[in-house]
Design brief:
This protein is mainly alpha-helical. It has ten helices and three strands; from the N terminus they run H-E-E-H-H-H-H-H-H-H-H-H-E.
Length: 275
Amino acid sequence: MKNWIFCALFLSVLGCKKENTTSASQPKDSAKVFVKNIKADSSAAPQQIKEEIFNFETELCNNKGHFDANKYSKEELEGTFKLWFHMRGTMLSSPSVFNLNSLQKVRTEKDKILSQLDKDFSETKKILENLKVVKDPYWENLRTNKLQELKDEYELKKTEILAFSDPSILMNHKLSKGCENYAKALNSNNAYMVETWRKLREEMSKRNSDPQRIMSEFESHLNSSDKNDYATIDLITFGWGNCVNDKIGKDAADENMYKKFESLFIKIDSECDEP
């Protein structure tokens, strides 16, 4: 009888412990599920578009770009626009030499011209480096390429200005690689200079709407007392200069670049003049 009562009490205690364990664990599991649901719900909520306007002008159009200010700032769009639109093509200016008067001007004002070129290069380089652009490898890579283009353009223009007074600097110059024939002609005897000069003029005439005028000018200049100066103008400006310029790598502002810029906006409203 005592044994039976002891067994009953033992089983009763086990049953109570089991019930207590089960009931105690239940709230803990429910809390975990509840927290997880809150996190899932909050992360699933889409961020609301913060639409703002960025105004910009292209050749023929006034444009109103609608953009999400959560993604970019107006300052970043302004910098990206300058990089795409204003920094294309030639970034530095220097006097063009097409005739005897401009040749003489470059020779007499060489130091002044070079000083201004140095200033323009430093200022443009600083602008490029400090532009705030959209955080995207595409635009950062374009900035890097533009900086290299600027350095190449500066070196080309500086060398041209110096060469109009002293063509010998073109010999063995790093920019002359692939354009050595013009450098050699400018520093050679009369026969080789005239031969290279004539070939250059023949090539120019093929690309001109009035080829006869190009060759008639050549014959006139060849028989002039200023023959060497005329040869210097052609062989540096149209020969060596164009040859080097063609070899300098440049990022063309093509359709793909425009589409990349356009993709930064929700939509663009444009008012354009007739071309």
